[in-house]
Specification:
Blueprint (H helix, E strand, L loop, with lengths): L1 H13 L3 H5 L24 H6 L12 H15 L3 H16 L2 H16 L2 H15 L3 H13 L2 H14 L1 H4 L11
């Protein structure tokens, strides 16, 4: 389960690039107030972008403008990655494809909730994830078990103690709890 959560968090960081590989829509880029998003002409893409998006060439003109924007942005991000980053991204995407549809839906919901958090809470989540990731695997496993076995009241107390110990990480409004599977 926690291995899945770690994979989820890594996927969250690469979410904008997923459309390049999956052919799934990404969140559209912000548009001017009231203005419909502008499409991207195939001819306006750089040669490397066209190569990365080659499988879409025949249908490019029929894609919605938001989809064209998302694909162009994803391709540019892909091209800016080092070979090591691309290899890691491919591996994460393969893991993503192997997840059951229900789990992917849950991950998407959690990502949307994360995106709705204020920036300072997003930063707190990232800091907590980094801190947790740096713990020895035995300690992470103990913490997971402790959390899993805790009552809702005990969990609340654990979170409160954490906030008191590290106010810079968890201040402000508390996000809604994630549902356990």
């Amino acid at each position: 389960m926690m291995r899945t959560i770690a994979a989820i968090l890594l996927l969250l960081l690469l979410a904008p690039a997923l459309p390049v590989w999956a052919g799934e829509p990404a969140a559209p880029p912000p548009a001017a107030a009231g203005a419909p998003p502008a499409g991207v002409a195939w001819s306006s893409l750089s040669a490397p972008q066209q190569q990365a998006l080659g499988k879409f060439q025949g249908q490019w003109g029929s894609l919605p403008p938001e989809r064209q924007q998302a694909l162009a942005t994803g391709a540019q991000r892909w091209l800016s990655m080092s070979p090591e980053q691309r290899s890691a991204a491919r591996g994460r995407f393969q893991n993503w494809q192997q997840l059951p549809p229900e789990q992917r839906a849950l991950i998407r919901q959690r990502w949307q909730r994360f995106q709705q958090l204020p920036p300072e809470q997003q930063q707190a989540v990232r800091q907590n994830f980094r801190a947790f990731s740096q713990l020895p695997s035995e300690q992470r496993q103990l913490l997971r078990e402790r959390w899993r076995n805790a009552t809702p009241r005990e969990r609340s107390e654990m979170l409160q103690r954490q906030r008191q110990l590290h106010p810079q990480r968890g201040g402000g409004r508390r996000p809604p709890p994630l549902r356990s599977r």
